[in-house]
Amino acid sequence: MAVRGNVLDIKSLGGSNKNGGGSLTPSVLMICIVAASAGLIFGYDIGISGGVITMEPFLKKFFPSVLLKMHDARQNQYCIFDSQILTAFTSSLYITGLVSSLVAGRVTTATGRKGILIIGGAVFLLGTVLNAVAMDVKMLIFGRLLLGVGIGFTNQAAPIYLSEMAPPKWRGTLNTAFQLFIGAGVILAASINLMAAHVGDIGWRVSLGCAAIPAAIMTVGAMFIPDTPSSLIQRGRVQEARKSLNQVRGVDSDTEAELNEMISHNEAAKADNRQPYKVIFERRHRPQLVLAAAIPSFQQFTGINVVAFYGPVMFRSIGISSDGALIAAIILNVVNATSTLVSTFAVDRFGRRLLFFEAGVQMIACEVALASILASELGTAGTATFSQGASITVLVLMCGLSAAFGWSWGPLTWLVPGEILPMEIRPAGQGIGIACNFLFTFILAQVFATILCHMKYGVFLFYAAWVFIMTVFVALFVPETKGISLESMDTIWQDHWFWNRYVDVEKKYTIPDEELSYLAHQRISLES
Ligand code: BGC
């Protein structure tokens, strides 16, 4: 047996956890639903800003120059919404989100995942109040900055929470709930926008203020769920960790082995005693660092937020009425959210890679077709009006794009980084990933209106080229993680053609003496 001194080769303990199982108890389901509802506030926010910026009373109060352009019939349709201050309203949230997701990665060691969810929800609530009562642009943007702080926290914690609570066999399925709730939040927002557009001058206040509803649901819900066993162990609360694990796995299951594996990983990490943000930059963690940063960054290069933020704006630009544009946005979002269910069903059955590949092909096809239709209908001058048939085709193609995103880069961005990162650098890695995601969301949201104005229909070719690059990247560098327990994830690098050069094939962990006999006993029972 691979035991030398107090060093034991975890891999040699057998495949017990390589293809982990575990059943889906009602308790784990409920707990995960509460955590995933963090996606609601993120989704609500994504959906609300796109609609609010098409409301005339809102534009009149905060961005009168955009309103003037909208009423100017000679205006190039591609350029109406090209206003830096207007895009700052949408994208400012991502700046504070970026910083706060990194902070969350640090403070989670003290507060636990649950604490981060509660803090994030509370700050978000404060931001919604400021937004609803905003009197000038400064107040409006300050409110959005607070929303960003909240979302940075909750987006950092919720996916990790879900991955750490879920039984390995169900990890992908449960984790997709986060994206599902993002989708539900977007739909809720788009529907509220549609109603609010008819309540007169205060419609936008209703839209922005209603964000308090999902925020309150999430924050209050988070107070009643247990923290994750890994997080509790990291904070030395072994008894509570045992209780939490029993609660989610069910009393009949043998949770001691899982608990002990977490304890030994934690001991090994503690013996290291270095800052996670330093450790993650070490050569041995290169695969995890690269993928945890690349996947969330690439997600934004699918072009999804062109659809999410500027869907209504795009539809107005091609000549659809205000209500029509909001309805088209709802259709798009329903397609996006329901397609996430495909992922819920498929991710643990067929794996992550297959979803990435299929969606890559579908997105490229839709984007190239969108570029061609915009080119033929609007041309480069952008002053022609769209025929009804062409508007419908645009909507259908955008639905194709949203659907592919909904079962691939949408949910997998929240799943894969959290599952490939070892416990000691998981919060740091997730923080870095979210920060990258927000950085590119910010950059692309900020420049999209300008890109559209200058590249015109070519904007969709730009995204299609990116999706091609990303799909090749997945084929070469993203290993399959389906069904592998978090504690055994190291094995995927050892078997990988490229990443194996960064990891020790004979990975060893230092195990405290008192656990050694337990693990040795486990090995004997596995062998017999
Ligand atoms: C992305 C957002 C996007 C949303 C659309 C999320 O996973 O991070 O940028 O707007 O999905 O549903």
Automatic annotation (TrEMBL):
The keyword Isomerase does not apply. Keywords: Membrane, Sugar transport, Symport, Transmembrane, Transmembrane helix, Transport. One of its GO terms (cellular component) is membrane. It comes from Carya illinoinensis. InterPro entries: MFS_dom, MFS_STP/MST-like_plant, MFS_sugar_transport-like, STP/PLT_plant, Sugar/inositol_transpt, Sugar_transporter_CS. Belongs to the major facilitator superfamily. Sugar transporter (TC 2.A.1.1) family. Its main location: membrane. This is Major facilitator superfamily (MFS) profile domain-containing protein. It is a multi-pass membrane protein. It holds the Pfam family Sugar_tr. Residues 31-482 form the Major facilitator superfamily (MFS) profile domain. GO terms for molecular function: monosaccharide transmembrane transporter activity; symporter activity. It comes from the Eukaryota.
